[in-house]
Amino acid sequence: MSFHKRKVFEKAVLYNKRNAYTNRHLIFSLIKKLRRKDASLKNILKNLDTQKEHNALRLEFIAHLAHEIKTPLNAIIGFASLMEERELSREKQIKFCKNIISASKHLLNITEATIDTSRAAANKISLLYSEFVPQSVIIEVLSILEEQIVKKHLHLITDFENSIIMADQRRFKQLIFNLVSNAVKYNKVGGTIKIRTRTDGRFFRFEISDTGCGISLKERENVFEYFSGINKNSMKSLESTGIGLSLCKKIVLLHGGEINFESKVDEGSRFWFSLPVHPSSQIEKDFEYEKIKETL
């Protein structure tokens, strides 16, 4: 091969190598872009599926809410109509009035629960701090749920430690009511509920365990999310499920505390939360200011 031909051949080989490298680079770059687009598309489709699921759950929630509102309204209208149309004895009037008041309170509870859920979703919950004995609030909640506990023949075991905390008492009661009512609702007939409180000087800790159906692995990931699977099942009875575990977490976090759980299917669940016994110095100042205003 002549010198000239060899040079031409070498240039052709080099040109082909460069083209091959460029082509490989372009191909790899294209593959990376396609992979990124594929991942992005998958995320978009996943988000769309999640959004569709959430929208479906919201619609179902609205349907359940309308049903819950309709029931007490029908009771109020029915008893009020009877009182208007008939001559009733004083005893009957008192009985019907009590029924109307009871239905009205139930309707108010549903409304407040819905408002609380909406505020929590919009991060608009405010706390009103006061000093109180948490054991007294827990006992009050247990008395409210006593009928349901007796009806299911549940064995209640309590272990309270005397303490005083500074927190929002109304929100604290919501927390306790929701956790205890869930333990009652999802427990088996003749099961056990254990409630334990402890204070180490810095934090108040509440624990409740049941021997119910437990929470599946799939549901555990979204237990504290709005319109999650477990909360979807809870929508069927706003009265028995209180404000929902999602709002429970929101309230605990606003207090500067922590909430968590462990569960085994067909064995039961254990939920617990901890709250600071003494809030931050700024909250203490606000609390002292409110106390001063009350004396003026």
Written description of the protein model:
It is a single chain. By secondary structure, the chain is an alpha+beta fold. The chain folds into 2 domains: 1-124, Helix Hairpins (Orthogonal Bundle); 129-282, Histidine kinase-like ATPase, C-terminal domain (Heat Shock Protein 90). The chain contains 10 helices and 7 strands. It has helices at 3-85, 90-121, 134-144, 146-151, 169-185, 217-220, 229-234, 238-241, 245-254, 281-295; strands at residues 129-132, 155-159, 165-168, 192-199, 203-210, 258-264, 268-276. The strands form 2 sheets. A 5-stranded mixed beta sheet has the order 2-4-5-7-6, covered by helices on one side. A two-stranded antiparallel ribbon has the order 1-3. Helix 2 packs across helix 9 (245-254) and helix 3 packs across helix 5. It is globular.
